[in-house]
Specification:
By secondary structure, the chain is an alpha+beta fold. 26% of the residues lie in helices and 25% in strands. It has helices spanning 5-12, 32-37, 58-64, 119-124, 136-144, 166-176; strands at 15-16, 19-20, 47-50, 54-56, 70-75, 83-87, 93-98, 107-115, 150-153, 158-160. The strands form 4 sheets. Strands 3-8-5-9 form a 4-stranded mixed sheet, covered by helices on one side. Strand 1 and strand 2 (19-20) form a beta hairpin. The radius of gyration is 17 Å and the shape is globular.
């Protein structure tokens, strides 16, 4: 947690359906990689990371969790506004390029990952981006050179809800997918 953390902690509480919740405070906003790195002292083993302002289909997350290391991805008509995966015929990541200026593929990174614990070492040594941040994708790319990472294409849904008007679209999809 970071911005308005008190509201989140007050609303969510200390547990959810019997599971204890541990909050980690990111004191400075130094990027997505830094946010994950801040959790190093409470994470043991493999773990899942999801963008907080996106919704993902449970079935896609379950398929991702079958991998030791990987990310969800979705084809997009304008891939240059995303991180883009270059994968082989088995879905193994060959490279991840953030907002490429030339076409690599249309398979876009949508911010849902499963990481082995080794990601922390990569993030600890990741260079800062031009914005002065530690990028999660930089750590992903570095680790993918040492450990096979796989892309899992979305077959359910991915709903970015970064803007208030996205909530209407998300509500419609969620109502249609109530199980």
């Amino acid at each position: 947690v970071g911005f308005k953390k008190e509201l989140i902690i007050e609303h969510v509480g200390e547990s959810y359906k019997g599971l204890k919740i541990t909050y980690v405070v990111q004191e400075e906003r130094l990027g997505t990689g830094h946010a994950v790195l801040s959790t190093r002292h409470v994470i043991h083993g493999r773990f899942l990371v999801m963008n907080g302002d996106d919704l993902y289909a449970r079935s896609d997350i379950e398929r991702l969790l079958e991998k030791e290391f990987g990310a969800l991805a979705q084809e997009h008509e304008n891939p240059s506004i995303f991180g883009v995966f270059d994968v082989n015929e088995h879905g193994k990541v060959m490279r991840l390029v953030e907002k490429p200026t030339e076409y690599i593929s249309n398979l876009c990174n949508i911010g849902c990952y499963v990481f082995p614990h080794e990601i922390f070492e990569k993030l600890e040594h990741a260079p800062q981006s031009p914005r002065g941040e530690i990028e999660l994708t930089s750590g992903f790319s570095d680790l993918a050179h040492e450990i096979d990472a796989y892309v899992v294409p979305v077959t359910g849904y991915w709903l970015p809800i970064g803007y208030p008007w996205n909530i209407i679209d998300a509500t419609e999809v969620l109502i249609q997918n109530i199980q």
